[in-house]
Write a structure and sequence with these properties.
The chain is α/β, with parallel strands linked by helices and 371 residues long. 18% of the residues lie in helices and 27% in strands. α6 links the parallel β12 and β13.
Length: 371
């Protein structure tokens, strides 16, 4: 039997759900996990207080001199770093446990040494699953990453400086995307999970905007009466997308305005593309403008992208920390009822071209909120 393990928790700004699919025998690493898993024969889910596995949780802030920061980059307040980046915190040469740099004033650093989930009262949830888990995943993996999606006190300083939004390839995007690419950038399992996520929000007759679209919109086949507008970079790719009712070719990195009036869409989706925007704040403001009151924006991504065209900060961040960047964009644009969700641990399809290199499916990260 497969087990879907999850962490459910509320931060100060959003509701978070982080899921990891495992083999049942992975629960044997802890007596409490094994006992909870045994109850699934009779109940739909088992819940435990996850705090014991999110330690340390009560350590005071640590003040360090700048010289004790080991990395060659300039420390950025609000970012998470592995403990090995700080001379006084590392508990071994490979200590990758994340800690948040809270402040950098003068030559002094202030670091929160606690687990990123400490203080958020996370619940550990176990459910039976029909999904196929990847081999080798451990229960401990569930606690590595969640918590990093809490936005910092100053997102502009942490994520959105001009240097952070620069790219390795600053040539015009129109040249880069001139030739169509009829390829999938994510594996079939991850794409299927994106479709299932979008299906949770779709209702008959909706007007949907697929932002930064390509030749596939990852929307469910039903309901069939959706009006779907697609805005993307390549005319041939958009023309091949059978789900689109309207196609618009536009480079949002030249002008971030959307060519629609106010309050004309019920749902905006953006799949595996947010990392390419050099003015993401302006685009998010436009998304909110074209959404009807109560309309939803859902942004999904994984851990694969075109490095030359992604903003520099994207590659600097932990995958879960990228959710914090996107969540900060939602907050700045005035969205409400914010959520993040992640899904890891599924097996990669055996016919996938990367199956010989990576047994685990591409992870799914999502952020959504209402206008």
């Amino acid at each position: 039997m497969s087990i879907e393990t999850g962490l459910e928790w509320n931060s100060a700004v959003a509701r978070h759900v982080d899921r990891l699919v495992l083999r049942e025998d992975a629960l044997q690493a802890s007596g409490r996990w094994a006992a909870a898993g045994a109850t699934l024969a009779e109940v739909a889910e088992a819940r435990l207080d996850a705090s014991p596995w999110c330690q340390p949780g009560d350590q005071p802030l640590v003040e360090l001199p700048r010289s004790h920061f080991r990395l060659r980059t300039e420390p950025v307040p609000g970012r998470f770093y592995p403990r090995l980046a700080f001379t006084d915190l590392a508990q071994g040469p490979r200590d990758l446990h994340p800690v948040r740099l809270l402040a950098y004033e003068g030559e002094r650093l202030s670091v929160d040494p606690n687990h990123p989930l400490a203080g958020w009262a996370p619940q550990l949830v176990l459910r039976k699953s029909d999904a196929e888990p990847a081999p080798g995943a451990r229960m401990a993996d569930l606690f590595q990453g969640p918590g990093l999606q809490t936005p910092p006190a100053d997102p502009a300083r942490a994520y959105f400086s001009l240097d952070s939004l620069s790219r390795a390839d600053e040539s015009p995007d129109g040249q880069f995307y001139a030739e169509p690419r009829f390829v999938h950038h994510l594996d079939a399992v991850c794409r299927g999970e994106i479709t299932r996520l979008y299906a949770r929000f779709i209702r008959p007759g909706m007007r949907v905007l697929d932002l930064m679209a390509s030749w596939e919109s990852h929307l469910p086949r039903d309901p069939a009466d959706l009006f779907v507008a697609g805005l993307g970079m390549n005319e041939a790719e958009l023309a091949a997308n059978e789900r689109l009712s309207e196609q618009v070719v536009k480079d949002l990195n030249c002008r971030d305005g959307l060519p629609w009036g106010e309050a004309c869409f019920d749902l905006v989706v953006c799949t595996a593309s947010i990392e390419y925007l050099i003015r993401p704040q302006g685009v998010m403001a436009e998304i909110r403008r074209v959404l009807r009151p109560g309309g939803l924006c859902v942004i999904t991504f994984s851990d694969r992208w075109f490095p030359p065209k992604a903003i520099r900060v994207w590659g600097d961040l932990h995958p879960f920390e990228r959710q914090a960047l996107v969540l900060s964009l939602f907050l700045q644009a005035g969205f409400r009822d914010l959520h993040t969700e992640s899904l890891r641990g599924l097996a990669r399809p055996p016919d996938d071209k990367y199956a010989g290199q990576r047994t685990i499916s591409d992870p799914l990260f999502a952020v959504w909120g209402r206008a």
